[in-house]
UniProtKB/TrEMBL annotation:
<comment type="similarity">
    <text>Belongs to the short-chain dehydrogenases/reductases (SDR) family.</text>
</comment>
<protein>
    <submittedName>
        <fullName>Bifunctional aldolase/short-chain dehydrogenase</fullName>
    </submittedName>
</protein>
């Protein structure tokens, strides 16, 4: 692949949390970064933290809306001349039990994560294929794509959908030199803004603990006894996009301090 310092990254949901950490790491390695998120002002503010508009731009793009995705990708190409790395990170977790999950909940989770990541991957892959320079597509899936737990049925189903998208796209895009990999984080509660959306409160209730103890709770159930931070997920995205992983596609990398094996 092209060296990271010459590459252009399109990161969805990058105004906060894990996406912001990914955008920050890729920018620190010299890549030009497009911060795509729901709210234009927040996306632009996050991009401004990364540098001038020569190296980072913020765009509004609801990933569940194909016209918006196409417009954002067009703007990205206009700004930087192409796209080399695509990170499907945008998401939300309603964290509800089976009987609390409504049809609207199911549709929202699937619109953003199953459909949204497909729309981004499909439209970005068109650009990558036409450029004939290979590229990387990385999905931020979840431990929940593989492991079952309580109170997360709609969310987890979309994560399993994303995991299979990774395998299907790896198969379809491999001949174009495009690698498609997934990352399965777990328990990233600090610095991500997810407490505000109710995710933390619901999870804490499920485990019968206080919300502020969630980070420690997750750390204790890992093999490494470590809290997983957004930066740890960003490190894995960076690694997958370097030449060290030039022959790896269709892989899912756990970034969970070992909880999935515990
Ligand atoms: P977050 O809420 O801090 O960030 C998610 C971002 O996605 C927000 O900026 C939000 O505005 C954006 N977004 C939501 N809907 C969107 C849409 N339709 N279009 C564009 N942007 C949209 O949450 P986070 O924890 O950083 O989550 C990022 C990703 O990581 C999600 O896909 C999530 O499922 C996944 N993940 C998180 C954890 C964790 O423990 N936090 C674990 C596994 C997987």
């Amino acid at each position: 692949p092209k060296p990271l310092a010459t590459r252009i990254a399109f990161v969805t949901g990058a105004a906060s949390g894990i996406g912001k950490a990914i955008a920050t790491r890729l920018a620190a390695e010299g890549a030009c970064v497009v911060v795509a998120d729901l709210d234009l002002a927040k996306a632009q503010a996050a991009a401004a933290e990364l540098g001038s508009t020569d190296v980072a731009v913020g765009l509004a793009a609801n990933v569940a809306d194909e016209a918006a995705v196409q417009a954002a990708l067009r703007e990205a190409v206009l700004a930087f001349g192409g796209v080399d790395i695509v990170v499907n990170n945008a998401g939300l977790s309603l964290s509800k039990s089976l009987f609390d999950t409504t049809e609207a909940d199911w549709d929202l989770q699937h619109d953003v994560m199953a459909k949204g990541s497909f729309l981004v991957a499909k439209n970005a892959a068109r650009i990558l294929v036409d450029q004939k320079l290979g590229g990387d597509i990385v999905y931020i899936s979840s431990k929940n794509s593989v492991f079952a737990g309580p109170n997360n049925i709609a969310y987890s189903a979309t994560k399993a959908d994303q995991a299979h998208q990774v395998r299907l796209l790896a198969a379809e895009l491999g001949e174009h030199g495009i690698k498609v990999n997934g990352i399965n984080p777990d328990g990233v509660v600090r610095g991500s803004g997810i407490f505000a959306s109710g995710w933390g409160a619901n999870r804490a209730k499920t485990y019968g603990i206080e919300e502020q103890d969630l980070g420690k709770f997750y750390a204790q159930r890992t093999l490494l006894k470590r809290e997983v931070l957004p930066e740890h997920v960003a490190n894995a995205v960076y690694a997958l996009c370097t030449s060290d992983f030039s022959h790896t596609t269709g892989l899912h990398v756990p970034v969970d301090a070992g909880v999935a094996q515990a």
